[in-house]
Structures
1.
Amino acid sequence: MNAPSPSTGLTSLRRAAILASGILSTTLYFTTILVTSTVLPQIQGTMSATADEVSWIVTFNILAIAIATPMAGWLAARFGRRTVMVTCIAGLSFSTLMCGLAQSLEALIFWRIVQGAIGAPTVPLAQSIMLDIFPREQHRFVMSLNGMGVILGPIIGPTLAGRLAEDMSWRWAFFMLVPVSLISFIGLYFALPRDQKPAPIGFDWIGFLSLSTAIGCLQYVLSRGQRLDWFESQQIVAFLAVAVLAFYVFIAHSLTAERPFLNLKLLTDRNLALGLTLVAFFGMLSFTPMVLLPTLLRQYAGFPDALIGQVIGARGLGGLAGFFIAMWSEKLDPRLSMALGFLALTISGIWLMTINLDVTPFELALNGMLQGTCIGLLFVPLSIITFSGIDPRYRAEALGVFHLLRNLASSLFISISVAEVVRSTGINYARMVELINPFNPSLMLPWVVGNWNGETNAGLARLSREITRQSAMIAYLNAFGLFTVVAAIAIPVALMFKRPRPAAAVAAIQAAGTTAPRSTPEERSLPPAEPTRKAAAE
C-alpha cells in the first residue's frame, strides 16, 4: 500500500504528508491575513494609534502579498520549489513571532509587511506541488481538500484570536500561529523531494520595481491623505508624483520589453479583461467589512473581543457554505452565478447601512454569513470564466495578474473606506455640536434633553462622547454605502462575459490551481492564441 507512485517516485505515505503539510501552510497563510481583524481595536488602544493608522496593519500586509505573489513562479524556477517553500514557511513563522513581540506600531507594520511578502509564494507553490505529485484523476479531490484550508482560516483564526485577546492579550493572536507554522515547516522539510538543479532564468526587475513603487506610493497617499489634508501637503503631492511616474515607466516598459514582468497584451482577451476588472471588485468586497466592523463594535458598541471574533468567524462559516454551493452549481451559467452573488452582496451592504449602535451580534453574524456565502460562491465561476479563453501557456502569468489585482484592490479600498470614516466622523461631529447651545429651543424641551445635562463639565463630557459615538456610526454607514455601490456596479459587469465552452471551463478550473512558470523564455514571448471562429461567435 505504500509503494512508490510510478509517476512521481513518492510513496503514498509521503504524498499524504506533503498534502497535509501543504494544506496546513495554506490554512496558516490565510489565517495570518485575517487574524488581526478581531484584535485591531485592542492594538489601537495599546499602540495609541488612530483608526487609519491601525488599519495599516491589514492594508500593508495585503499590499505586500499583492506585490510578492507574481514572483512565485520565478522564485520556484530560480531556486527550486522545495527551497522556496521551506524558506517561506520558516520566514512566515519568524515574522509572525516578531509581530507578537512588536513594541511599537511601526515595528508591527514592518513585520506584517515581511509576513505578507514572505508568505505570498506559499499558496501558489503548494497548489502546484499538489497537482504534480498526485495523478490527474485525483486533482479535483486534492484541490477540494486544499480549498477547505482556505475556508478554515477565516473561521478558526478570528474566533480563537478574539478569545485569546480577551483572556490574555492581542499578542497571543500571533503567538498561537507559531507552533502551527513550525509543524508545517517540519512536514515540508522532511517530506518534499529534493529540488533538481535550478536553471538560471531572467527576471524583469524594471517592471517589478516600477510596479511595486507605484503601488506602494499610491497606498501611502490613500492611507495618509485624509490626515495630511490631501493636496495641501507637499508630502502627498510628492508621493503621488512618484506613483504616476513609476506607473508610466511600468506601462511603457511592459509594452516594449521582450519578456515583461506582466504581459499586458493578454488583455486583448475579452473575458480576461472583464475578469480582471471583476476580481478587483471582488477584492474590494472581500476584506473591507472585517476591518471596519471590529473597531466599530469594540469602541462604539461595546462588544468584547471574544464576541467580535465570533461575529467575524461567522463570515468564514458562510464562506464554507458558499464553497459547497459553488461545487453543486458548477453546471450553471457562471455569468448568472456571479450576478446573483454580487446582488446578494449588494443586499448585505444595504442591510449594513440600516444598523445602529444597538445592533445585536446575531444580526451581524447573519449578515457576515451572507457575505461569506457570496464570497465563496463567486470565486469559482469567476476563475472559470476569466481563464476560459486563455492559451494554456499564458494561464500561469494571467493567474498572477488575477491575484495581484484582487489583493491590490482590497488594500486600496480598505484605505479609502477608513479615510471616509475619519473624514465623515469629523464632519458629523462638527455639525452636531453646533446644535448644542443655550439658544437651541429644542434643548429646552424635557423629552428632547432627557437625562443629558449640558450645564456641568461632567455632563458636557458625557454629551461629547455620545455625539462622537453617533458621528462615528454615521461615518461607518457611509463606508458601508461605498461597499454597496461597488457591489451594485459589479452586477452588470458580470453579465458582459462571453459564455465559456465546456472544455475551456474544465481547463480553466485546472489552471486556477497552479501558478507554475512557463517552461522556456521562448514560450513567454509567444502571442496569445487566437480564439476559434466558433468561440468568437459564442
2.
Amino acid sequence: MFETVLVANRGEIAVRVIRTLRSMGVRSVAVFSDADADARHVREADTAVRIGPAPASESYLSVERLLEAAARTGAQAVHPGYGFLAENAAFARACAEAGLVFIGPPADAISLMGDKIRAKETVRAAGVPVVPGGRDPELADAARELGAPVLLKPSAGGGGKGMRLVRDLTRLEEEIAAARREARASFGDDTLLVERWIDRPRHIEIQVLADGHGNVVHLGERECSLQRRHQKIIEEAPSVLLDEGTRSAMGEAAVQAARSCGYRGAGTVEFIVPGTDPSSYYFMEMNTRLQVEHPVTELVTGLDLVEWQLRVAAGEPLAFAQEDVRLTGHAVEARICAEDPARGFLPSGGTVLRLREPQGDGIRTDSGLTEGTEVGSLYDPMLSKVIAYGPDRATALRKLRSALAETVTLGVQTNAGFLRRLLAHPAVVAGDLDTGLVEREVEGLVPTEVPEEVYEAAGAVRLDALTPGPGGWTDPFSVPSGWRIGGVRKPPAFHLRVQDPLEYTPRGTATVTDDRVSVTLDGVRHTFHRAADWLGRDGDAWHVRDHDPVAASLSRAAHAGADSLTAPMPGTVTVVKVAVGDEVTAGQSLLVVEAMKMEHVISAPHAGKVTELDVTPGSTVAMDQVLAVIAPHEEAEE
C-alpha cells in the first residue's frame, strides 16, 4: 500500500478521498489555487501544495504543476477524484512516466471509453446493445437521418455539460454551436455525437470493479432518472424497476463492457432503459472514474469504493467474487447545488454565512463546505451530497427528506428545499420515474410566493437591531415603537425585497437571537435560522434585502422607456454580439453569460437600439449587474 497519495481535485470529492486515506493510514496531499487556500480539503489533508493563482479552475488542470506537487511531497500515487483530469488519458500517462501510480483505469481504457463513439463500437462488438446515433463530422446529417427528437452529447465528457435535446431540427445548427461551446469550456474538446432520443426513459447505471488479475464484478445498479437539464440530482440503489433477472443481465453486460476495454479499478457503465420494457436496455457510455453517486452503492454493499480503488491500484486482487456481492437495504442521495430554483435554477454564489449539515443514524453528508467558504462561478455548482440509508426505500426517502429539512446553507442559495419537495412527490414515492419527470413537474415544486412569515421574521430582525439595550434613559424618538406626540401610534414599516419589493409592517410577536428568529402569526409559531439578511428553514432560504424606493425610482427615471438587461447570475461574459448604436429585433441573442460551466443567453426584450453596453468578452459580472440598455425605436427616434 502507498505511503502518500496526492489528491488532484478539490471540494467535497477531495474531502471524501482524504477521509478514506486517513482511515487506511495513508498520508494525504491536497492541492489548491489561491482561491482555495483556506478550503476544507486543504485543512483536512496531512499536507497541501499551492499549484497556482486564480483563475483557479486552470490551476487544477495543470498536469505539470500537479506532478511537481507530487514530487515535492514524496507521493507514490495520484487520486484524480472526478471532474478536472479524472478522465484524461494524457494525465494518466504523464503520471506513469513520472513514476506515479494513477489510481484509476489504464490510460488506454480512459482514451477508449472517453471517446463515446469508439466506446459504443467496442461494446457493440462485445455483444452489448447500444443506442442508434452518429458523430462528427457527419453530425448534422446523422441527426436529420435519425429524425427528431435527438440528443447532442460531447464525446469527451459527461455530467450533462454540453448536452442538448433537439426536438425542432430547424434549430439544429444553433444547438450544435451552443453544445460545442459548452463542451469546449468543460472538456477542452468540442467533438459531438448525436443519439436517438427515447421518450420517457429511465437512466440506470451499473457499478463495476476490476482488478489487475482478470477479476471483474458488478456491484448492482443505481437509479439516476431524476434529472434536470440532463444532470442527475437524485440517485438511489437499488432501482425499483429491475427484477433479479434484468439486474443480472445488465450487470453481466456491464462486466463485458469493462472487459472489452481492459478496465481496472472502479467504473460505471450507464444504460438508457425504456420504462415500459426494462429488458430492452441500451449502453450509453462508460465513466472511467468514481461517480458522484457512489455513496449509495457503498451503503447497500458495505464496501468502500475509494479503498478498493487504492487496493486495486496497489496490485491487490479483489477479495470477493460476484456471488459474494449482496445488496442490503436502500440508499438515496441528493445533490446540493449552488443554484436558485426561484430564478429558473440559475447558478448562485456568495459566502457561506451559516452552515448546518445533517449527520446521524442512517445519514451521511459528503461536503467540502465550511462557514466562510466563498462559492464562486468557476466550478461545477455541486456543493455537497446528503445520503440516507434505511432497511427499505420508504424509510430511506423519509430520512432523506428529514435530513434536507435540517440542511442550512445561508449566504448561498441552494436547491435543498426543492429536492425535499421532489422526494415527497407522489410519482417519486411510488417509484414511477423517468428522466423527464422533474421538468414536467418543476413548476409545482418551486413556490411562487414568499410566505408572509418570512417578511415578518425579517421585520423582527430589523426591529431588534433598532431597539436599544436595557439600562439608562432612552430617547423615545429613537425607539421604533410607533410612539408619537399626542399618543397616536403608527407601527414601523420596512421596505423589503426578496423577489418584488414591498412595504411590510410587522404585526406579530417575535424572539430574536444571534442565529435564530421565531415569530408568531395568527397563533402559529415559525422559527428560522438566520445570518445577516438571510433566513432559512426546511432547506429553503430567503435573502431579504432592504429596498430603497427612492433610489429605484431615480434609476427608472434615468432609463425611462428603456429596458436594462441584467446578469441573471454571477459569472463571466463569454460572447458579445452587438455594439452601442446597433439596431436589434425582439428576441435577438445579444450576449452569453457563463457560470459553473453553464451558458445563459441574454436576448433583446423588444426591438430597439443598444444605447449602453457595459461589458466585453471576459468581463466578470455580479448577479443583477446591468449589462446593456435597449431603447425602443420610438425613444431612439425622439
3.
Amino acid sequence: MKLNDKAAVANALKDLGLYLQIKGENSFKTRAYDIASERIAGLADDLGQLVAENRLTELEGVGASIAAKITELVNTGKLEALETLKHEYPITMLELLKVPNLGPKKAKVLFDLLGVGSIADLEAACKAHRVRDLKGFGAQTEEKLLAGVELARRTGTGRSLLADVLPRAEKLLEHVKQAPGVKRASLGGSVRRMRETVADVDIIASAAEVQPVFEHFVKHPDVREIIGAGDSKASVRLREGDLQVDLRVLPDEDFATALHHFTGSKAHHIKLRSLAIDQGLKLSEWGVHRGDQKQRVRDEAELYAMLGMQYVPPELREDWGEIEAAREGRLPPRLVEARDIVGNIHSHTTWSDGRASLLEMAQAAKAMGLKYYTVTEHSQTSSYAGGLSLDKMKAQWDEIDAVNEQLEGITLLKGIESDILEDGSLDYPDAVLEKLDVVIGSIHQRYSQDEDAMTRRVLNAMENPHFQIWGHPTGRLINRREAAPMRMEEILDKAAQKGVAIEINGCPERLDLKAEHVRLALQRGLKVVVSTDAHSVGELHQHLPLALATARKGWTTAADVLNTRSAKDFVESLRRG
C-alpha cells in the first residue's frame, strides 16, 4: 500500500528517532531522524514524486540511509525498523518521554528493571516506592517523576499546539473559499484568537446555498471522516491528529455576527450581550436586533461601533479588560503587525544546534524583507546544544564579517544567547560580552530551584550591565514543562529599573513570555523584542507569526517592540548605562 501522506511519514521518522533514543543510540543518529522528520513535514513538493524520481537526498539533512527508509515507507506503507522496535518496546513508551524529568536513558532503565512501559506503570511504581531504590534515581527523583506524571496528565487535555493546527486550518480555509457560491470565509474560535493551544477548528462562511459548500468541504484530502451535517453546520475529523473541524455556512447578511459569535471567547460574549441589553439590543450569532427589527451589520467593526466601543481585535477577546478599555477608548489604536518588524532576533545556526548555515539563515531573513539578523548561538555552558567556546565564538565573528561583506541589504549583528548560571552570573567574562552587539540571557538548566532561588538568580543576572534581553523568561514548554517558579512582577520591576528588554519567544512550545505577562511588562514601560528562536530557515517563517500573535494578545504596539527600529537604533536601544 502506497503512503504519500507527508504527516504520517514525518511522524514515523520522529517515532523511530525516539525509539532509538530509548535503545541508547548516539545522539547524532537520533537527531538525524528528527531533522528528516521536520524536512518531510515542511515539504512543499509532492513526496511520492521525489521518491519515484530518487531525489530524496537532495533534501537537506536526508542522507542515503534515511532516504531508503522514507522510500520504504512510501512504497509499502510500513517501516520494518520501526515495526521491530514496536515489538521490542510498547508504543506507550513514547508517552513516557512526555513526563518532565524523564529522559530516554532513564525510561529504558525503568522498563528493563521494573517493566515500566506506560505513564500508568510509572505512576504505580513511584507510588509503591520501587523507583527510589534504583541506582541513579533516589527518593527525590521519584517524587519529581510522580509530579511529572500529574503534569503530563493535566496538560494532556486533547489540546494541540497552535503551531500544529494553524497551517492545516489555513489550508482548509482556502479550500472552503474555493467552494461554489462562497462570498466570505474566515477562521473562528481559539485559532482566530491565537490561543496557545487549540481543541478544534471553526470555519465560518457565507453563501446563498449551503449544500454545495458542504459537499466541496468534505472532499478535502485531509478529511478522514464526516462526523455529521445539518442545515448550517458540517463537522469532520482530519486524518492527522484526530482534529475536529466545524464549518458553519450562513447567509451573507449574518456573516459578521456569526463570525464574531463563533470567534469567542465565551466570557467576552457574555459581557457584550449584557452591554447590548443595556442599550436595548439583542446580540446573537443571527444578528443584532432592536425589538423585532434586525440591524444591518456589515462587519465586526460596525458591530462594536453599534455598542459604542472601539473595535476589539480577535486576539484580545478574552475578557481580560479589553471591553472596559474599548468603551473608554483606551485600546491601542493599532497593534504590532508583521510589516513593522525589520530585524530577526534570536536564532541558531550550524555553529551550535541549528540546522542551516549562517549564510543560509541570513539569506532567508533577507528574503523575508528583514534588514538585520542577530547571530545568537548557545553559550559554552550549553555544551549539549553545541554552545560556543571562546575560540569558536571568535571564529564565528570572522564568518559574520565575511557574510556582511558578501550580502547587501541585510546586516548581521554579533551576539550570544548566554546561559544565566545558577548563581545569576552570565556565561563568559564581561570583557567578552562587552564586545557583542546583542546579549540575550536565558536559563536552560536547573529549573528545579525554588521560587526564592530562581527569583534571586534572575535579579542577580540583571545586575550585569551587559545583560540586554531576557530570553524565554519563564522557561515553560507548553504541555510539557510548567513555568519556573519566580516572582514575575518583582523581576519585571527590576528589568524596568535596569533597562532590560523582554523577549516574546515564538518557538511553538514556548510562546514565552505569555500574553498576560507581556501586559505586565508593558504596564511598567518595558520594551520587548518579538523573536523567532529559529533553528532552521523554516522556523524563521513559522515562528515570527506566533511571536507576533503573543505580542498582540499582550496589547503590544510597534512602538513597544525594539526590532521595529533600524539596526543602528536597535543596538543603541540595548545599551545600558
